[in-house]
Amino acid sequence: MSIAANLARVKERITAAALRSGRSPESVKVVGVTKTVELPQVELAVQAGLEILGENYVQEAREKIQRFHGRVHWHFIGRLQSNKAKHAVRLFDLVHTVDSLRLAEELDRRAGAIGLTVPVLIQVNLAAEATKGGVRLEEVSVLVERAAGLDHLRIRGLMTMPPYFDDPERARPYFRRLRELSEKIAALGFPGVEMSELSMGMSGDFEAAVEEGATLVRVGTAIFGARP
After folding, report:
1. How many helices (H) and strands (E) does the chain have?
2. Other Cβ atoms within 10 Å of 35 Cβ, number
């Protein structure tokens, strides 16, 4: 199938999952994961209506951002090193992967230096996997409260990557837990904090994520095919 057909099929599946759970399909947005995807393939996806592109590496994103300047929104979805924060605040519309106060403070400092305010998501490591980024469940509310006090950061929600499972139903409890955590944080009423976005679900499990409340699904393989 073509990239355009793949994207259409992903959107159809999202619509069906949203309707099954009593949600509006318009409440879910596709973040096309373009890591290692060549520019001509990205162009085809943009022409087919993909409006948000997600990149894992600042350096790789730069060329693509220059190519598609003003045509799409850019989200950073990889592990962000503090020394890349100065570039990230200029390049991306949303950073999904804030997982420490140190990184939050560096983004705040770099954004303030150029007069910007950066929307971010707090990444939560629900399974406490050593190989993945994200703040541990018991530390999330403390990080949100402290980061909320930074002048040039705006917390817009949460992000997670559950363990890999062949069966997407096994990922569902993690998606449900993130939604419940989002609701708990919203109830705490931290000033300036919105829990409007839940970034969860990828090519293998995004339907379960949508059914559990995802607003942003990060889809690469289902749109662009398997990476080499």
Report:
1. 9, 9
2. 15
Amino acid in position 155: I
DSSP secondary structure code for residue 195 in this structure: -
Q: Say if pTM beats, i.e. exceeds, 0.90.
A: yes
Range of lowest pLDDT (9-23, 55-69, 114-128): 55-69
Domain ranges of the chain: 3-223
Residue 227 is predicted with a pLDDT of: 78
Q: Which two tokens stand for residue 18?
A: 């949203």
Distance CA 139, CA 206 (A): 26
Q: What is the CATH number of domain 3-223?
A: 3.20.20.10
Q: Is the dihedral of CA 45, 10, 79, 149 positive or negative?
A: positive
The mean-pLDDT minimum among 58-67, 103-112, 166-175 falls in: 58-67
Half-sphere exposure of 34 (CA within 13 A, CB side): 33
CA distance 169 to 222: 18
